[in-house]
Amino acid sequence: TRAETVASFEARIFLERTPGGPSLAAKPLKTGAGWYRGDLHAHTGHSDGSCQTQSGARAPCPVYRTAEAATARGLDFIAITDHNTTSHFAAMAQLQPAFDRLLLIPGREVTTFHGHANVFGPTAFIDFRLGDAAVPNVRTLQSLAEGAGGFLSINHPTALSGEACMGCGWTAPDTDYARVGAIEVANGGSERAQGGAEGPLLGVAFWEAQLNAGHRITAIGGSDNHDAGLSSDIASSIGRPTTVVHAPELSTTGLLAGLRAGRVFIDFDGSRDRLLDLSARTARSTATMGGALAARRGETVIFTATVAGADQARLEIVQDGEKRAPVFTRPGVFSIRMGDRPSWVRVNLRDTDGRLLAIGNPIYLSPAP
Ligand SMILES: [Zn+2]
Ligand SMILES: [Zn+2]
């Protein structure tokens, strides 16, 4: 007979009287539209985040360490996205008044065997048991997230799925991409694993395939930090990468509105001042990054890219997933002739060695009647 094996564990069950969960900052930390820099993916001891103790051992990492690291990094916001739990929201609600310059965005990483997705905004429980009777398919999960007022982002879509990382890649069949708010194309953990921003784990091709299918989905980044004490020069430390969002104000509602509008870029180095913006105009109308512009067939659309905090950097122009080399009439200014089909144009930023510094979101062109 087999030796008797015993798995012993302790389950602690906490009962919450308020069904909606704790509420966080109701008032904006800053009023006024502008660029706000932050991290949209981080774990604490409420799931599998750990950090160093006083004596150098490791322990589940308390939420305040993440807030302090984000502050040291100069971030305006951080979403704390522990796996399949809501238990971190009480700590965040407690910390927010003391962190009156760092917006703590409630998030959770819905972690399934068919992929991981962050849901930002709500603090109420959302059933994550994809495949169970309560959540038979991903569309139900999407409806639950939307019903709670959440914004859903597919995480690290091209991560490998298997024994090493069960369900990490996005393979959920029947995903309704028309209702996906964002795709995390740059993940700090993936960047660290593949030794650079670019490689098979970069989610750009996955995202661009959805753009080419006609969906308008915002590309974002997230460190996927699991150790708040990780040195800031390492990818997957808090703020690496940083997502920079043009938002109407620094509040959770404002940030989610900014993410939906798509005037957003990913700053791989998590700088404090790098900027990448894009606008477009025809004789009749204008649009900014994330927006849409109608143009007649054959009409010239003039684009202006605005770059700051990256001396010597060069622009890379991408149209419908293909790199393009349009003629620059002035630095940052180029034009594209409208075809007869919908199209999208976006820019990346690279340094003189070709290293990817920033990923920008598209402007969507549609044929004018
Ligand atoms: Zn994940
Ligand atoms: Zn994660």
Describe this structure in words.
- By secondary structure, the chain is of the alpha+beta class.
- It has two domains: 35-272, TIM Barrel; 278-367, Immunoglobulins (Immunoglobulin-like, Sandwich), CATH 2.60.40.
- The protein is 15% helix and 34% strand.
- It has six helices and 22 strands.
- The strands form three sheets. The protein has a 15-stranded mixed sheet that branches.
- A hairpin with a 5-residue loop joins β20 (343-350) and β21 (356-360).
- The longest helix is centred in the N-terminal third of the chain and has 10 residues, at 63-72.
- It starts with 29 loop residues before the first strand and ends with a strand.
- Residues 109, 116, 155-156, 168 line the site of one zinc ion (ZN).
Write the layout of secondary structure elements.
Layout: E1 30-39, E2 50-52, E3 58-60, H1 63-72, E4 77-83, H2 88-95, E5 103-112, E6 115-120, H3 138-147, E7 151-154, E8 182-187, H4 188-194, H5 204-212, E9 218-222, E10 242-250, H6 252-261, E11 264-267, E12 275-281, E13 286-288, E14 292-295, E15 300-308, E16 314-319, E17 322-324, E18 328-330, E19 333-337, E20 343-350, E21 356-360, E22 363-367
Parallel strand pairs: 1-4, 4-5, 7-8, 8-9, 14-22
Antiparallel strand pairs: 1-10, 2-3, 5-6, 6-7, 10-11, 11-21, 12-13, 12-15, 15-19, 16-17, 16-20, 18-19, 20-21, 20-22
The structure holds zinc ion (2 copies).
One zinc ion binds at residues 41, 43, 109, 224.
SSE sequence, one letter per element: EEEHEHEEHEEHHEEHEEEEEEEEEEEE
CATH topology of the largest domain, by name, is TIM Barrel
What distance separates the N and C termini? 78 Å
Major sheet size, sense and barrel closure: 15 strands, mixed
